[in-house]
Write a structure and sequence with these properties.
The complex is a heterodimer of chains A (162) and B (163).
Chain A lengths: L3 H11 L6 E3 L7 E4 L4 H10 L7 E10 L4 E9 L6 E9 L4 E3 L8 H12 L2 E3 L28 E2 L2 E2 L3
Parallel strand pairs in A: 2-5, 6-7
Antiparallel strand pairs in A: 1-2, 3-4, 4-5, 8-9
Chain B lengths: L17 H11 L3 E2 L5 H10 L12 E2 L7 E5 L4 H13 L5 E5 H6 L22 E3 L6 H16 L9
The chains are: A alpha/beta (162), B alpha/beta (163).
Chain lengths: 162, 163
Amino acid sequence: MKNTEEIFQLLKENFKDLNFELKTDLPVDNFIICNPLEIDKISRYLHDNPELNFDSLINLSGVDEIKNNQLSVYYHLESTSLKHKLVLKVITDRNKPEIATVTDIWKGANWHEREAYDLFGIKFLNHPDLRRILMPYDWEAGYPLRKDYENPEFYHGMKVPY
Amino acid sequence: MGLLDKEFTDGNIVIAKAEDLMNWARLSSLWQVSFGLACCAIEMMATSASHYDFDRFGVIPRPSPRHADIIIISGTVTLKMATRIKRLYEQMPEPKYIISMGSCSNSGGPYWEHGYHVLKGIDRVIPVDVYVPGCPPRPEALLEGLIKLQEKIRKASLVKKSA
């Protein structure tokens, strides 16, 4: 069992050319901020390393931080064998939100990433099937959970507002 | 008003208006599309089950809209689903009836303001005969709605109304 600080040190030793930031001062679980385009390699390491063995992706969720002009994604990981948990965060530019996919590491990430794409417009690079998952495929009004989203007046001739 | 409330007086011949006979036949076997959307569908299934027994009113779920007379819109109608419901409705043969069950299907319900994905009332897409209020309505309420629909059908006329 390892805590977030120990995993943070391990990541820094193994990925010397990448920046990591440990957040401990917030009233939530401690988390580590990682590079969005290298999250696949970091995830692969977390998954394969026998000391860490993060075999389960509990949740993957997008957040619109419009005040900082950024979109971020949180990863909640768990090791079912070693009984420890970890929270990762990646931050991307709101104007060009691109994050590497982790679908090939945790299969369950497939639909989670499609949901984040559907509702926040975050592009997951190399995702095998990046289509909308909840909204209609022909939804053209944008990404509903973005803070500056505005609903359309009509969809296929149906009035949308109350 | 009913067909069989007149006593047999002469053999076993019943004299009735064609309209009454047709309406009686229609209202007594309202086959429904086997179709549910959300929590209201659970109440609708409870209504179908033995305790409330929808079948005693002639309501049987059918697996195809082409077999059905009524469709009960039982739950939240998303915009994505609304296009499919319209198609189901169009596939049903005439005469066809619609019961809108629950707040979501009546008006959008709790999603009326912030539900970016919810149609604010199924009557924006297809014509509704009976609205059943509730969130979700109890089986008794749905039965009441069905009886209201039967009353409506009983009053239907073949004669074209003059303007």
